[in-house]
Amino acid sequence: MNRVDTVVLGAGxxxxxxxxxxxxxxxxxxxxxxxxxxxxxxxxxxxSLHLLSPNWMTRLPGWWYGGPxxxxxxxxxxxxxxxxxxxxxxxxxxxxxxTVTRLSRDGDGYRLDTDDGGWLARDVVVASGPHGAxxxxxxxxxxxxxxxxxxxxPRQLAPGGVLVVGASSSALQIxxxxxxxxxxxxxxxxxxxxxxxxxxxxxxxxxxxxxGRLARTIDEMPDxxxxxxEPSVQLVGRNDPSATDLDLGTLQQRGVRLAGRLVKASGxxxxxxxxLAEDVAASDRQLRRFLDRVDHHVACSGLSRExxxxxxxxxxxxxxxxxxxxxxxxxxGTVLVAAGYRPDYPFxxxxxxADDGRxxxxxxxxxxxxxxxxxxxxxxxxxxxxxxxxRHDARAVVGHLLARSGGLRxxxxxxxxxxxx
Length: 421
Fold this sequence. Notes:
The structure is a single chain. By secondary structure, the chain is an alpha/beta fold. Helix content is 25%, strand content 21%. Strands 1, 2, 5, 6, 7, 8 and 23 form a 7-stranded mixed β-sheet that branches. The chain has a 5-stranded parallel β-sheet with strand order 10-21-11-12-17. α1 (13-24) crosses α10.
């Protein structure tokens, strides 16, 4: 049985952010991952995917993008390389190819059983991120279903049309790619958040940051539970500045048939809700409120001469959607589900889970002393689950962890800031 002060679970951006801060503090620790550094970005992303956030926003403790294209968007492969270099910059103690099968209390600390031996630790930080098990609507199990984390490119799909289920950025990007490849695509869309890629000459993420929206905490939200279940924005990261926005209107113009949310499936027939027009209208109202805040910020900050004049996206008008589809009669060979993820911690035997499966926490501190979490949706700030936002929660968690243990085991000088060129 191996002994160590702290175990970090997950070698993605959140886990590495925690590891960097623990290393700076001289805290003995290891980072366990079932695969390699950035494993999900290697094996659970499609080939053409790029980050939604611009490169200048790819910031981690002691590390940021220093390349020639700050306004571009890293590809999935590029982000893997970015995280590999980050881990190497401070010699992150990553133990790769190690799957945790059980996490339980052991006296005042924790025991972690893995497929390659066990660990005893005083503290554990769960940094496996918000992506647990893919959500698959009931009734689809008997159909030829492919979830977004297993999709790579149009060539892997069975012949015929495709029904894409979901309205997030992933669902829209995949539907767009399939339509461009010549497939007949139907998109079953639920609640969603529409967002222009750029507004008044600046990336929408720049406005989200400038207006303070990303820094809003869960304590400032009138309904914290609703805030944690906000639909993700419909965006695409493309390095072509002339590329158009990606939303339901764009897809409809490209020949994608739009429908309401998938209600149920029976045999080869799927039943669809009548919510589409309502959800589109709600999304347009939300978009207008955001752009109103941007315009107000511009006026109050004296930026009117520094940015472009307002040029707002037009409201989306959707065609009458189908209420039922016979997949066999329609020639639909694949149902591709991109409907999000549910929390999934099958290894966790510490009583810290809410009824919906998420880990109970406040600013990353769980009810179990010495057990922490980083990288959850709206963990404390709205940007908690983003690459850029994880650094704030990582600092809060590491600060609490070190204070709890009475300081450092082996004091070391700060490592200083570095730039990822």
